[in-house]
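Quick check before the chapter quiz. The format below is the same one you will see on the exam, so make sure you can read both the input and the output lines.
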Amino acid sequence: MNSLGYKQLLDRFTSWEEYYKEANIFYNTLHVKEEKAWKKAKKYNTKKSFETYLRDFPQGLYTDLAMNIVGTKKEEKAWKKARKIDTEIAYNDFIDKYPNSQYIKIAKQRDIDNWKLALKYHSRESYEIYLNKYPNGNYFNEAKVELEKVKNNVFVDNKMALMWQDNDDELELPWSEAIDYSNNFVLAGYNDWRLPTIEELQELYKYKNKLLSYENMYWSCTEGTLTGWFSSVPIEAKCIHFHFHGLVEEKDKRYILNIRYVRDI
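Here is the expected output.
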């Protein structure tokens, strides 16, 4: 402090004791105000309340803590916004702004989570939602393929290398007519459809929750063992109850049951 400063202090205070006393009062008053401001900020616990504290006490006792809390509040708000929008762009923006965030792993996981959701519902809408949300997603090409399958009313079992008819407008026919009708059946641009074996239908049953409809009893091309009185030709064929735990039984071929055609791929 220069000589002028000391002179000003001496002009204001008659002694150093008086100066220290005044300074102590000022400090205690300021400390009380800061403590009240800090308690208020914690009470409301919002980004704005802590910003108010920082504005009034930029060099305060709790400045570093308040700045950390404000940063966390901003991050939380940004994360909630990204989750609400729930798109690839929203998550990438969040990752760019908060590369060390506690939510980074979740943000990067959302692509696969949305893809699994699309597969779960296996509908035109679910695949279109994924494609709109993730135009550069890791499963974009797969989603386009699945969308085309749904649009064409087919379900593909890659494990068995089979393409199945999959629509709500299922045929209901006696067994012999179902066999004959397959020769003229056209779907998704293909005309080589056939009635499936009972084993193929049993395999399809495992994927029933991915089908557009399945609450029916379906004919197979597998004939039963019961024959007519004067013939060796079976009068029954095997069918499967999709609505009754995949139960397989033999029915008279004259019964009218649902048809779900299949083709080899």
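If your answer matched, good. The two ends are 92 Å apart (CA to CA).
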